[in-house]
Amino acid sequence: MNPFRIGQGYDVHRLTAERRLILGGVEIPYGLGLLGHSDADVLLHAICDAVLGALGEGDIGRHFPDTDPAYRGISSLKLLREVMALASARGYRIGNLDSTVVAQAPRLAPHIRAMVENIAAACAADIHRINIKATTTEGLGFEGRGEGISAQAVVLLEKISVSEELDV
Ligand SMILES: Nc1ccn([C@@H]2O[C@H](COP(=O)(O)O)[C@@H](O)[C@H]2O)c(=O)n1
Ligand SMILES: C[C@@]1(CO)OP(=O)(O)OP(=O)(O)OC[C@H]1O
């Protein structure tokens, strides 16, 4: 049985007026927010896709269709918890998770710790297993023009050993 599974995820959402900006489950004060069927948390969507990829379970749209009213406005932390329940049912937990948010603005550094804590809690993982980076594109491309925000994530899932499950 393979003790490790690796996955990657990528997502983009458009910035628009009259939406709140939510990244990593943290509401960030900004004049614009991300457009989507859910809360459009682009970072959590990339992470969900990375976990689903590691499990060989397709992508977020397959599990939570954007045609289903049940997911309208939903907190993406709930989606991440559901994805992690699937991982746990298969006997996997987060080995480590690394991610990058690409945003020209706002400045995300002051919010990274709260995002890490939210993601660690949703994944039932130690905060030291979760890393979030932020970068601008120096004004280049759609993120640089402030039209949208993208995020990328890579996750390593590790098999929970039987002895650990039994706590012996
Ligand atoms: N939205 C952002 C983008 C970047 N940061 C922080 O600034 C550092 C430098 O970014 P560059 O794009 O100029 O390389 C970056 O490493 C982040 O720490 C940020 O907080 N919010
Ligand atoms: C998260 C879901 C939930 O319906 O909707 P959106 O917020 O539109 O996000 P996107 O990444 O475009 O598609 C995935 C959907 O599963």
TrEMBL record:
This is 2-C-methyl-D-erythritol 2,4-cyclodiphosphate synthase. Belongs to the IspF family. The record marks H37, T136 as: Transition state stabilizer. The lineage of its organism: Bacteria, Pseudomonadati, Thermodesulfobacteriota, Desulfuromonadia, Desulfuromonadales. Homotrimer. Involved in the biosynthesis of isopentenyl diphosphate (IPP) and dimethylallyl diphosphate (DMAPP), two major building blocks of isoprenoid compounds. Catalyzes the conversion of 4-diphosphocytidyl-2-C-methyl-D-erythritol 2-phosphate (CDP-ME2P) to 2-C-methyl-D-erythritol 2,4-cyclodiphosphate (ME-CPP) with a corresponding release of cytidine 5-monophosphate (CMP). It comes from Geoalkalibacter halelectricus. Pathway: Isoprenoid biosynthesis; isopentenyl diphosphate biosynthesis via DXP pathway; isopentenyl diphosphate from 1-deoxy-D-xylulose 5-phosphate: step 4/6. It comes from the Bacteria. PROSITE patterns: ISPF. 4-CDP-2-C-methyl-D-erythritol 2-phosphate binds at residues 11-13, 37-38, 59-61, 64-68, 135-138, 142, 145. Gene3D superfamilies: 2-C-methyl-D-erythritol 2,4-cyclodiphosphate synthase. It catalyses: 4-CDP-2-C-methyl-D-erythritol 2-phosphate = 2-C-methyl-D-erythritol 2,4-cyclic diphosphate + CMP. The keyword Lyase applies. Keywords: Isoprene biosynthesis, Lyase, Metal-binding. One of its GO terms (molecular function) is 2-C-methyl-D-erythritol 2,4-cyclodiphosphate synthase activity. Signal peptide: none annotated.
